[in-house]
Amino acid sequence: MKLFVDNLSNVDVSYLDAKRGLVGESWLVGLILEGSLNNESMICDFGIVKRNAKKWLDTYLDHTLVVPRQMPGLTITETGQDLEVSFTFPKGQFICKGPKEAFAILDAPAVTPAHLSPWIEQELANTIPGQIDTAKIIMHTELIGGAFYHYSHGLKKHNGNCQRIAHGHRSKIEIFIQGARNPELEKEWAAKWKDIYIGTREDLRNIAEINGIAHHQYEYTSAQGEFSLTIPASCCYLIDTDTTVEQLAEHIAQTFKKQFPDKKVTIRAFEGVGKGAIAEYA
Fold this sequence. Notes:
CATH class: Alpha Beta
Largest sheet: 7 strands, mixed
Structural class: alpha+beta
Distance between the termini: 57 Å
């Protein structure tokens, strides 16, 4: 007998990729349980399963930087309660330092659902009550018909895990000019923000050349500790405000209002799956 939970949770993370560098991602997570019926004619209590599994995902995966330990050229250095992760990819150098809880270290050569699912299944095994023979995690991305982008950021003022300097999202965007949706403008913006790190200008401490390539060096201190990030300038997009989805929607709307000064502009900017912000200019 099997039980399934299609919409157990969704997780927003960033991960490291040997070719793309820092990638923001959003995964939908489901669960399939196989086991024997108990004296209540149930495999287990759905409520307990969902609560325990979501708690683990929120604690150990959501809003982390997922690091594939076996990726060639990767270096992980532990200093007290902090980790520093570094590697070189085609566009330049990546270095990120912060508290250990800001990272999820995956013992794999790459970060994919196929590599993540067995790790999560093993970690969840002891959290699920009942007579369970197998617990299978299903991870997939949202089906998006239009344009979308992968972005990473950090929100130093946030009291929760959004304060981590390198977490991210896979997000769609909807752009309306005079009430009509414009897929071409959506594609253009998605291309502009492809695999991008969106940084707040006041957090940019330095622009340095590493092996002849310009890199941005970001630093800030938040409630969880000190964070720093070095990443090629070509992978960055600077704004003058915090990088909350509200401010991102406002920034995009202002940009298009300059392009269409006499028209109504509406932006629906998503932050991962099923949530986001709307900014309008008439």
